[in-house]
Amino acid sequence: MSAAIVPVTDSSFAAEVEKHPGVALVDFWAEWCGPCRMIGPVLEELAGEFEGQVKFTKVNVDEASDTAARFGIQSIPCLVLFKDGQEADRIVGAQSKQTLKKWVAKQVA
User: Fold this and answer.
1) Per CATH, the architecture of 5-99 is what?
2) What is the DSSP string of 39-92?
């Protein structure tokens, strides 16, 4: 994981995501999830492309089960976009870079 993507835990979620002014993307994932590992490099690229506009974070659902439960995460990967601490949109499942880029750009515009 690069410095561009911030790992978030149950105890740091509020500070890192809910108190973040602007757009934050949360990747709910797990080590054992193949599609999660597949989109990891795509998110790394997007984190670089949207640097300064979107904060990219990752929540390991096995380690931060309270946060995953609070947001009703049933399937992973689940990408949730927050705008000024409020959930704005979510996508479940691995997506192409192009799809994800358009999805994130909509929130930044």
Assistant:
1) 3-Layer(aba) Sandwich (3.40)
2) HHHHHHHHHHHTTTTEEEEEEETTT-HHHHHHTT--SSSEEEEEETTEEEEEEE
